[in-house]
Amino acid sequence: MTQTLEPQTSSPTTGRDEPTERTPTERVDRWLADFESALRARDIAAVTSMFATDCYWRDLVAFTWNLKTVEGREQLADMLTARLDDTAPESFTATETPTEDDGVVTAFLEFETATGRGEGMLRLRQAADGDGNDRDEAWTLLTTLQELKGHEERRGASRVLGAVHGSEPDARSWAERREAEEAELGRSSQPYVLVVGGGQGGIALGARLRQLGVPSIVVDSHDRPGDQWRGRYKTLCLHDPVWYDHLPYLPFPDNWPVFAPKDKIGDWLEFYTRVMEVPYWSKTTCTSASYDEQAGRWTVEVDRDGEHLTLTPTQLVLATGMSGKPNVPSFPGQEVFAGEQHHSSQHPGPDGFAGKRVVVVGANNSAHDICKALVENGIDTTMIQRSSTHIVKSDSLMEIGLGALYSEQAVASGMTTKKADLTFASLPYRIMHEFQIPLYDQIRERDKDFYGRLEAAGFDLDFGDDDSGLFMKYLRRGSGYYIDVGACELVADGTIKLAHGQVDHLTENSVVLADGTELPADVVVYATGYGSMNGWAADLIGQDVADRVGKVWGLGSDTTKDPGPWEGEQRNMWKPTQQPGLWFHGGNLHQSRHYSLYLALQLKARFEGIDTPVYGLQEVHHLS
User: Fold this and answer.
1) For 379-403, how does the pLDDT look when each residue is reduced to its tens digit (9 = 90+)?
2) What is the C-alpha separation between 12 and 491, in angstroms, rounded?
3) Phi, psi of 440 (to 5 degrees)
4) Region annotation Disordered: residue ranges (predicted)?
5) Coil, helix or strand at residue 380
6) In sequence order, what are the beta bridge partners of 122?
7) What are the start-end ranges of the E strands in 173-279?
8) Which of 55, 103, 296, 381 is the most exposed place for a label (fewest CB within 10 A)?
9) Whole-angstrom distance, CA of residue 569 vs CA of residue 562
């Protein structure tokens, strides 16, 4: 949810002549040649001098075996000092014609390292050198590992033949081989990776690992892949558009709905799991896990549809979802409330609540969706807003926030999902809000009448701590917003009743707020969000391991619900943690697609015995 242009500030080149009016291609080619020459000479001082003083280098595994952003020349020099010799980068080349906008030249790149091949993006801008002449400096650089040398995926020209031509020692059919593999895995042969959680994150990672030849199992407690979606309230649809949500290898067809209904997503995930041959155990619950430091592996006890099994993976991935562990509040009087109470994750939809009074605690995405479905079925519904909420209309988000990268127009202009993902990833989190603020200024002006109606109804709006809007709220705290697909008009006209304040207690048949307001209720829905993913580690492994890992998600932006210090990447997501062999994977469909690649490559490298010295292992500043 970002734009590809630079923030709307003054151009860094204003007032100076271009040195030779070189084309963007010539400027990029020259910079890359000088950059590679300095890297080859291991001249770190020369390398850092080619970057702006306020530079950012975001590396996804290629140099650091980590997800790490270094900021400024000093951090850049420290990273290169530690990693340049081992990485041995070379062959930096622009992959298509660079572009220039507002004095910034942007180029897609490819390169090689000692162990792999990578792609990335470079942004150059001009600054005066010591003699008063302009020269190109790197402002942002993204480097990503795309494949490991000698361990490439069998795809394209190198895909497997499939048919048996000539003699073959193993005469079994494909189906017989698959059946034997499934019978042996977890019994006579152990997975190298155990992925706990079979939603879109676990399935996407399972597909990546399958293609890379890493023995793995994805386990999930539901009866079928996709049940995580099927079991939600019946009117649920994705709020992100289809172009943003493709899974690896197999994009949605071009007749797929823009906003997919939850049951359609559930069916797609089940189909995807089968077609991509993801080793998937449904009806499976992990009951305990422990790590043997000396052996370097886990012992995980599982119940697979009544069968007890002990698995001993080397790597354990918790793909239980960023929105996976319900945050159920504790209020006095819950034990005496005579009606039904449940968390939004367990909400069945409006069926069965006819004639009842429903109070929904919360005012973000789930609360709005649930309230909308309830009132559209004639059910008396009150939403309790406990704190301000950021609202953005779906069509405004699509046109202004996502259109340049993830839209039909972007596809028509040549934007692929991969290029969009690289562009998106190339924006350092430290300055991403600067790109977002102008977008939400546009949205606020475009939809000012809409926002005016909401405020007139008493709804408490915000645009984030720094007016940077939806996506920064998502990255920083994972909550506090609603993408409007119709519920807000029902709030504005009073169809969805609105109450404000903190819940003080429940009585037998009401919810009482701190100011004494009493809301009659037969049903209470807690749309109160989800806790940190390390809560799953506490439940499965132990609180000591959860504390060793620390809080999962957030950037350290020191904004609401995202305490500092600044960390520069998502805490503990898709990268090594302080607990050896423990990883976290999740997020929305876009993140499950994009970051599953980097997590899978890190796991593949370890499986193959490749040395993976981690630069900048994240410190623990917060426990939950």
Assistant:
1) 999 999 999 999 999 999 999 999 8
2) 45
3) -75, -20
4) 1-28, 154-176
5) strand
6) 107, 141
7) 193-196, 216-219
8) 296
9) 12
